[in-house]
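To fix ideas, we close by showing one paired sequence and structure record:
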Amino acid sequence: MTTIIKGGKIVTASDAYYADLKIDNGKIISIGENLYEKDSKKIDATNCYIFPGAIDPHTHFDLEVGNAVTADDFESGTKAAIIGGTTTIIDFVNHNKGETLNDALNNWKRKAEGKTYCDYGFHMTISEWNENISDEMKDMIDKGIPSFKMYMAYKERLQVDDDIILKALKRSKEIGGLIEFHCENGDMIDFLIEEEKTKEHFSPKFHPISRPNEVEKEAVSRLISLAKVAGQPIYIVHLSTKEALKETIEAKKEGQEIYVETCPQYLLLDDSLYEDENSKNFEVAKYVLSPPLRKKVDIKALWNGLKNNYIDIIATDHCSFNYNGQKTLGKNDFSKIPNGIPGVEHRFLLMYNYGVLTDKISINQLVDLTSTNAAKIFGLYPRKGTIAVGSDADIVIWNPNHLSTITAKNQTHKVDYTPYEGFKIKGRVEHVFLRGHHIVKHSKLDLEESLGRFVYREPFKGR
């Protein structure tokens, strides 16, 4: 059945205007005034914004780290995503040393297939290098996975050396791939962790001390040099510091193609939380993530970077571990606390409230940062990431007048806390369409079975 959404204000990365939308067979088929079709379903969007479905290109669902598995699997994680206005996620396939990339991909397919409530894609992690890995990178691109990830931290498990980074960058240039990088100096981190332990510093408040700004800045600077030698674009995930941002800005001004991502936690939460009175009862373990929360001066720099278009994407790095039974595994040793926090459900509404409504970013930038840029960089545009004739009917109707408060009790995430507890919110996701299916109605999921599909992404061509 044809659906017509009437009376709303359409907002894209470049425009904002009043018009009706006509949807059929999963696509937007018409945009204009006073659209009509007999027997069509009508949705009244008066006094509401109409946004393209958000895209979160950085999630970790059903991920095992040490003795813990994330609280959110693909079912609960994508339910939370769609309730929050995110209609597509791209999750990271975890590649273990010794296995093939295809083996790792098959593991993640089993985790996701038939369980996702929004559309999904994968990035492929590379944790070692050999001729088979090089060949399989092309396999991944042929299978619609043109993006990869390498870690400059987590020694012995994921960390790769500079020569491997160069080889992978050269290979990605040959085959149309883009590599994302976790930029922290793993050797420096390991040294600093052991230094704190020798002082008998085991509290979670020492987590950020073991990962100072210089850890990120050094890795970003080194990566930029490696990418320059390789002559290949790079993508930096979850950038958190003013020093690292400065490195990327300078390189961009010199002509390097660098894409930068940050996350709501680095824009809204600061390192004073590690010194909170809760540190006496281990509560600050909730904020143990990597990179850690930073200082207010870093937050200010990141917002300025967003406003001036030096940062390309706001993702979440959603990696949810329960406080009870999981974070508490590090009760006697902060280095054993599973790293990560939840966020996929709350990203869009947080950025609307604490970005748009505070004039830190424009409403068009909100769309760019949470949807359009990700679609362009990761091979989904214009199928997704915008509202245009021919695009997938992934649509969010946003009611700007509703008032609420974020609490763990009312979230969809399965995790037992939220780092945004008590944040006041104006506006809510009223309706969500996924490829034309009306699956969120008046902020409630109205779906008996999952409809999410794997999305094949085109090889990297630049934004």
